[in-house]
Write a structure and sequence with these properties.
It is built from eleven helices and nine strands. Strand 1 (about 35-40), helix 2 and strand 2 form a beta-alpha-beta unit. With about 325 residues, the protein is of the alpha/beta class. It is about 45% helix and about 20% strand. The protein has helices at about 1-30, 45-60, 75-85, 105, 140-150, 165-175, 190-200, 210-215, 265-275, 280-285, 295-315; strands spanning about 35-40, 65-70, 90-95, 120-135, 155-160, 180-185, 205, 220-225, 250-260.
């Protein structure tokens, strides 16, 4: 019996050492096959822009194919869920938005745990939302907008999707001002903006980066910024805080996440490359986007804090789905 125990322990020891060596070799040679960057929204908006910038840089840096996969639906939940269920081997990462903190605010059956099912790799940037209207909408200032939307039938307003950061910012605006708005969900900022410009919808809570080209062209009009201060790229548009609504201080943010238990050396390798590509020069290519440096632990704490905030917004606005 003693001899059997010795043989068993020896077998387990060599098995463990063998697995450790294989894992170390795998990490050292990473990546040795294509890497997938999941973008949970449609092509054309900021999430997609960041995903493609990262994929292009990593492909050049590592000499291996790093490809973007637009896995859209449910305000990003489908793509984020696919990330949670992927093998933790470094070959799947995801450009998540701040919506990762919103899903559980309205759903009790979210298929992942935002705090415990992911590795938070790095913060990529943030941008405030902007309240914009079609060029023909009968309001040119926020005060005129309030007067227009406090009377009669509710106006539809577009966002990137149900339970998105933009959607909940719109609900905060409704609760704080008493205006009559009805949410219309889209599958991303680009298709929502296309309908706003075409006049199919008159109002949108948009990320500033998505809105800026159309503001510059005159196709849409900006009325207010959601963050606590004015934006440098839109200095003549007041913030909701200065307009008398200090409780509305929101911004969309983007971070790179990976499946839980992805090896730390691989996460560190990603972080080193992100330092090289997420720079002020990249921010300038998407006006309104700003650097938002934050440690992985602070990212997790931010998600935890926002989960509480958005749950309260859902309760006040009676959002259940």
């Amino acid at each position: 019996m003693r001899f059997f125990h010795v043989k068993l322990l020896t077998f387990l020891l060599f098995t463990f050492l063998g697995q450790t060596i294989v894992l170390a070799q795998s990490i050292d040679s990473y990546p040795n096959k294509p890497v997938r960057v999941i973008v949970p929204f449609a092509p054309g908006a900021t999430t997609d822009f960041l995903g493609r910038v990262i994929a292009q840089h990593a492909t050049q840096a590592w000499g291996k194919s790093v490809v973007v996969e637009n896995k859209i639906g449910a305000a990003g939940l489908i793509g984020v869920d696919a990330t949670a269920k992927s093998p933790p081997d470094g070959y799947t990462v995801c450009v998540s938005t701040g919506a990762i903190a919103i899903y559980s605010a309205t759903k009790s059956d979210v298929p992942f745990d935002p705090l415990n099912d992911f590795e938070y790799v790095a913060m990529l940037g943030r941008v405030p939302h902007v309240l914009v209207v079609n060029k023909d909408f009968p309001a040119n200032t926020f005060q005129e907008f309030l007067a227009q939307t406090k009377n009669g039938k509710p106006y539809p307003y577009a966002s990137t999707g149900a339970r998105s950061n933009a959607h909940f910012t719109g609900e905060m605006l409704k609760t704080s001002t008493g205006i009559a708005l009805q949410h219309i969900s889209y599958r991303g900022g680009a298709p929502a903006m296309a309908d706003l410009v075409a006049g199919h919808v008159q109002i949108m809570i948009a990320s500033l980066t998505t809105a800026m080209p159309f503001i510059k062209s005159g196709a849409i009009k900006p009325l207010a910024i959601s963050s606590g201060t004015r934006s440098e790229v839109l200095p003549n548009t007041p913030s909701l805080k200065e307009l008398g609504y200090p409780e509305i201080d929101t911004a969309e943010w983007w971070g790179l996440i990976a499946p839980k238990n992805t090896p730390k050396p691989i996460l560190d390798k990603w972080r080193e490359e992100l330092k090289k590509v997420i720079t002020p020069a990249i921010m300038e290519k998407s006006p309104g986007l700003e650097l938002y440096p934050m440690s992985p632990d602070d990212m997790r704490k931010l998600v935890q804090k926002e989960m509480v905030t958005w749950k309260e917004v859902a309760r006040k606005s009676n959002i259940t789905e």
